[in-house]
């Protein structure tokens, strides 16, 4: 059985969580190419990084994700910078390019991820075989869909527990996985040997949510968070032919109305 993979940037590298035949594994990678080398046989690889860069206007899928999450959690989705800004070397130049192209500045959060955005963009432009497997998703959207409503911030008391419980309620195979990952990769390792840092517990849960979304959406992600165009046939693409969409599994019934 081909694995389902969720990938999140975890300060030191790419954290990939895979589900294969009910078994969960976690591993850090130095590059997105390394992730692909290990998981080119995957059914799907969902990455928490923008894929498909705008040229002259904001991405509708970003707007849709914000509306899907509601006012309380919309801030967790940042506006994707334009392609020109992603190619700039300084924050000042990138912010200026983004304002000229999209009529808006560039958040420091978005600028901090520009090297990762650039890395994934160049990887997908170079690896044609990855385009049908690697897709963009967003952990907060995944959790909201699984929980039938937005969860408290992962930085608040109980936020991580709520996310762990949501994953375990969604899929029985997730029971105890997060605690095992923490013990094997963080608590059970000397500080010099750790690959997953103590501050990256939330990234573990995010990557798990992406992997579980890949599994739940097996058979195709015809649903995208794009309020302007719903359906694979109408997904907008950027100048390099990459789709501008955020994929997720079918939402719970009382969340479906938010997409209209």
Automatic annotation (TrEMBL):
InterPro entries: DUF429. It comes from the Archaea. This is DUF429 domain-containing protein. It comes from Halorubrum kocurii JCM 14978. The lineage of its organism: Archaea, Methanobacteriati, Methanobacteriota, Stenosarchaea group, Halobacteria.
């Amino acid at each position: 059985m081909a694995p389902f993979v969720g990938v999140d940037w975890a300060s030191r590298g790419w954290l990939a969580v895979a589900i294969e035949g009910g078994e969960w594994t976690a591993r850090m990678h130095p590059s997105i190419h390394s992730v692909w080398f290990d998981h080119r046989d995957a059914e799907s690889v969902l990455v928490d990084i923008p894929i498909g860069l705008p040229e002259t206007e904001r991405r509708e899928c970003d707007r849709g994700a914000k509306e899907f999450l509601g006012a309380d959690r919309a801030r967790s989705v940042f506006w994707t910078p334009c392609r020109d800004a992603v190619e700039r070397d300084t924050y000042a130049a990138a912010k200026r390019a983004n304002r000229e192209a999209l009529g808006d500045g560039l958040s420091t959060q978005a600028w901090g991820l520009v090297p990762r955005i650039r890395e994934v963009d160049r990887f997908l432009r170079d690896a044609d075989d990855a385009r049908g497997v690697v897709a963009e998703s967003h952990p907060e959207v995944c959790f909201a869909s699984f929980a039938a409503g937005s969860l408290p911030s992962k930085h608040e008391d109980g936020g991580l527990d709520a996310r762990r419980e949501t994953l375990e309620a969604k899929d029985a195979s997730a029971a105890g996985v997060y605690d095992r990952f923490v013990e094997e990769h963080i608590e059970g390792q000397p500080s010099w040997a750790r690959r997953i840092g103590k501050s990256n517990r939330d990234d573990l849960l995010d990557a798990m949510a992406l992997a579980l979304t890949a599994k739940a959406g097996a058979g195709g992600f015809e649903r995208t968070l794009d309020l302007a165009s719903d359906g694979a046939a109408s997904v907008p693409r950027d100048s390099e032919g990459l789709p501008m969409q955020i994929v997720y599994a079918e939402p719970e019934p009382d969340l479906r109305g938010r997409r209209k």
